[in-house]
Predict the 3D structure of the following.
Amino acid sequence: MSKGILGRKVGMTQIFEKDGRAVPVTVIEAGPCHVLQVRTVDRDGYEATQMGFLDKPRRLASRAARGQVAGISSKRSEKIKAAGGAIAAKADCEPKRFIREFRGPASAEVGAEVKVTVLEGIKSVDVTGISKGCGFSGWMKRHNYAGQRATHGVKKAHRHPGGTGAGTYPGRVRKGKKGAGQYGNDQITMRNLTVVRVDGENNLLLVRGAVPGPNGGYVIIRETNKVG
């Protein structure tokens, strides 16, 4: 399984190399994360490791979220025990705010703590996050269209889309045509970002370049599988 961890974006800054070059980097608070579940082919039909990041107060967590990380007595668990079945292992930690799975064979057991040092020695990573939402935007801003001419008969319609139909047949706008609508708030993955520094003491990861989302937004960091 490619190595990975959960975190949240802190912000952007720059650091200086020994030769004086300024390197723009994004600072990510990566981990520590707890392994909440380990998916297996026999039980779940696929292999994966489920991790959780950032503790959530128990008063804000649902009973299901509390029962995911710690043993809670219930009618279902009592029936399983009475039938001689085994209860799935619990991480025995606090409920988590951000939970995601990493596909592939598990490299850690339930309850194990994964820190940013797991990425030491890795040159590049893929970072996935939710981009900033910009609400309803026009077609020029959303798709970078040029707009209509600024002269020669175009009157107060410079940023309008113009004709979008397809003639007599089919006599309507075809599905999927680019236009105005929701801009941003999409899952974006930045591929092959260079790992500049791993600060295990402060749980910080510095990667070269930009990362999607606002400061404080949750991100998923995976060892890249991009070649070249």
